[in-house]
Amino acid sequence: MSVDTLQAPAHLTDDELRTLDAHWRAANYLSVGQIYLMANPLLTEPLRPEHVKPRLLGHWGTSPGLNLVYTHLNRVVRARDLNTLCIWGPGHGGPAVVAGSWLEGSYTRTYPDVTRDAVGMARLFKQFSFPGGVPSHVAPETPGSIHEGGELGYSLSHAYGAALDAPDLVVACVIGDGEAETGPLAASWHSNKFLDPVHDGAVLPILHLNGYKIANPTVLARIPEAELDALLEGYGHDPIHVTGDDPAAVHQAMAHAMDTALDRIAAIQHAAREQGAAERPRWPVIVLRTPKGWTGPAEVDGLPVEGTWRSHQVPLSAVRDNHQHLRQLEDWLRSYRPEELFDEQGRPRPEVLACIPEGARRLGATPHANGGLLLRELPLPPLESYAVDVDKPGATMHEPTRVLGDFLEHVMRATAERRDFRLVGPDETASNRLQAVYAASGKAWQAGTLDVDEHLDRHGRVMEILSEHTCQGWLEGYLLTGRHGLFSCYEAFVHIVDSMVNQHIKWLRVTRRLPWRAPIASLNYLLTSHVWRQDHNGFSHQDPGFVDHIMNKSPEAVRVYLPPDANTLLSVADHALRSRDYVNVIVAGKQPCFDWLSMEQARVHCARGAGIWDWAGTENGGEPDVVLACAGDVPTQEVLAAAQLLRRHLPELSVRVVNVVDIARLMPSEEHPHGMTEFEYNGLFTPDKPVIFAYHGYPWLIHRLAYRRTGHGHLHVRGYKEIGTTTTPFDMVVRNDLDRYRLVMDVIDRVPGLAVRAAAVRQRMEDVRLRHHDWIREHGTDLPEVADWTWDG
């Protein structure tokens, strides 16, 4: 049942109310100042046009509500000595969060030149959305933030990710009512069914309904309150309402709501931790209704502003040119009575600071928002303990991800007490052959269970929900607060989080330039059930383009690996889990795959990123006539099968086989840290010989990466051509011209002199492809010479 806290008795004393209101007014003043001013920060003289920035940028509408939350979080953190992190969903309200951190001193601690006085206030104002300054959003530069406000929808999943395995942490999460309309946010309400009140912290959602987006009303602000309550209760929450526009009444209501919510959270955790309560709790949520642009101009140019969409960004937009706007801005700023809030030197007065907690309890100083400070090395086992034996290439087969699953089971077991490693994925852990982890940890689950269920565990650290957005948000929040993890996903559907990973990469790129941000564990993807082996699902599940998306991003922050077998997958995964501040994408198959390299060979090959497999070619110490290159497990098999056909049918041909694990190696060294110099590239691929490249994904990516190479004109790439269906494994490569017979034909077509001399061999290859077409339609299986193929090198 919801609680309307405005009907609750007031319990703040007059002094408490006065100091809370002083802090809130100071934060509002600083927020407006950041949007508008570049001089005269304390209004010690009448406001003139030259005091105002030439370009007015920022978002006022949500800022007073965020300031209210910051003020009241300060009160409860100080009173209860809470360990608290706040996720600011309406992240475009950057002025508010910056204002709060400046008032508490954490901003000056981070940026000593932005002092807590008039000089520092002037710098604070001018730098906001100014060339050489700081962004308008809650960004990596903002102390206390783990959440970029540039894109909406991820706040609540980030909050739950931060709370996982942090039992003493309370994560407040302000959700804007515009953000609440997004799909990722809607799905993330279900995270409370996965939050363990014993081992995890608590999340306190604060749904901020100020009524409008940029130009339209918001859905949740316009539906009847009973309908909103039914929605939130259906999600498993007990709503507590705070509604109003009178500051004194809202302060009283917000204080009561905060205390009520935190008392309920404490009771839930006590019942689970001390009394063994096993029933899924109903967690509180605060519904905060205040006007958009509260305390700002009520009307501008005869049009209503406060409480409307017109207050979303800059309510007074012509301050430099319009004298009336300039006077309105000055009146607006003076309405906060800055002389009561700051002394003559611009320092906040004691009553403004009375509610602020101390040290690391301050919202802008919590180490949970700088997760690298809390990060510990993962206890990874020796790879030899899980490597498969390879006496000679291609003699045995394993499912690479199943081998990796055994390795991850060790990691999960080794972190059982520390609880700082999680495996997330959309209902695919077992499908992706990683089910060995269940021996160390079950699947997190707080909802009902049936006898037929398997591996569900109230305290589990495997996270499965059929929302890639929520998986991504959980893991990002977990990593940003100092832990480790892996996201396992079907290759085709990881695209759902394209935009989310883009924001995370931007975050990493910026934090690399902030010396006070400690490196965090990398965001690691394992993409499997990939394009070439979708025997059950077909065309809808065939899309290898996530790699293209990632390779468009900041070279310093992204890495893509295509291990060709089980041991190289182990080596790459070990490297990724040890790395910091990257997004690592690993593409590997789950179906039986030939074992090509021993563990020692795999380590060396992965360290190189690309190398010649001399055992697979026929160079005999001379210069090759052609280079067969490959990246990915299925392309590697097809290239080796093609090399075997060439050895049999054209034994005089000198063939070099090159395998690429790290796709960025193809780039020039000046464009990517893993790129090759021109000398290295030419040594591997030659500057003038034909290169037939079999690639896992869309072929034009290889051309784009290598377009500046001397030998690019001799490069011919085969890959996925967006042709798919439910068919046999080999038919998929035939349909996309990636098969061994087509690769042999490509060699014949591109090596000078072979077109005539090897015409009969080419015809034979074409005949096999035609026979394949008829065979699978009659038998439903691949040709025996394909299905039973083995490497005989």
Q: Can you characterise this structure?
A:
α7 (183-188) links the parallel β3 (169-176) and β4 (202-209). It is built from 27 helices and 23 strands. Strands 1-5-6-4-3-2 form a six-stranded parallel β-sheet, with helices on both faces. A six-stranded parallel β-sheet has the order 13-10-14-15-17-16, sandwiched between helices. With 793 residues, the chain is an alpha/beta fold. The model is unreliable at 1-8 (pLDDT under 50). α6 (155-163) packs across α15 (468-480). It is elongated, with a radius of gyration of 30 Å.
How much helicity do the residues have? 25-40%
Q: Helical region count?
A: 27
Please describe the biggest sheet, giving its number of strands, its sense, and whether it closes into a barrel: 6 strands, parallel
* Computed CA radius of gyration, to the nearest angstrom: 30 Å
Number of strands: 23
Instruction: Tell the overall outline.
Output: elongated
* SS class: alpha/beta
Distance between the termini: 73 Å
How would you write the strand order of the largest sheet?
A: 1-5-6-4-3-2
Uncertain segments are 1-8
Q: Proportion of β residues?
A: 5-15%
